[in-house]
Design brief:
single chain; alpha+beta; Immunoglobulin-like; 9-stranded mixed sheet; 1 helix
Length: 148
């Protein structure tokens, strides 16, 4: 009986801790750049704040309108040109924020099942591993709706 109780308590504690890690991430200023209706991809931008006491590791994202969402960054090449590169993770120290923004780190929605139109909102979930995600509505716009 004690073994069963210990396992149930351990699983419950793990779920509680995972829930706290999820609650520590706050998404704000989330938007998608509007693209032509035939585009197979679109970029997403958001500010992710880690209100937790430990580093947050973003490992990916998902949405029902894309077959795949990748973390990308723009890197300057030796010849001065800039090129997109895939990131396997983005680490956010405790109490800090990372801005996913044009010409920097961003979400790349690939294999769109449909192209959302300007003014529409799309739910996207930022992942911290296979079982922890925080979701927000991303507004579709030609330019950032959050610039002053």
């Amino acid at each position: 009986m004690w073994k069963v109780f210990s396992r149930v308590t351990g699983v419950g504690l793990a779920m509680l801790l995972a829930g706290n890690a999820q609650a520590d991430l706050v998404l704000s200023d989330a938007w998608l750049r509007a693209v032509p209706p035939v585009s197979p991809t679109m970029a997403g931008y958001v500010t992710v704040t880690n209100n937790g006491e430990t580093p947050a590791i973003i490992t990916g994202a998902h949405t029902e309108i894309a077959g795949h969402v990748m973390l990308h960054d723009m890197a300057t090449q030796k010849d001065g040109t800039r090129k997109m590169r895939h990131l396997s993770r983005v680490e956010i120290p405790p109490g800090e924020s990372v801005s996913f923004a044009p010409a920097g780190i961003h979400l790349m929605l690939m294999h769109l099942s449909r192209v959302p139109v300007e003014g529409e909102s799309v739910s996207i979930c930022i992942e911290q591993g296979p079982e922890s995600a925080v979701c927000s509505d991303f507004q579709v716009s030609r330019t950032s709706p959050f610039d002053a």
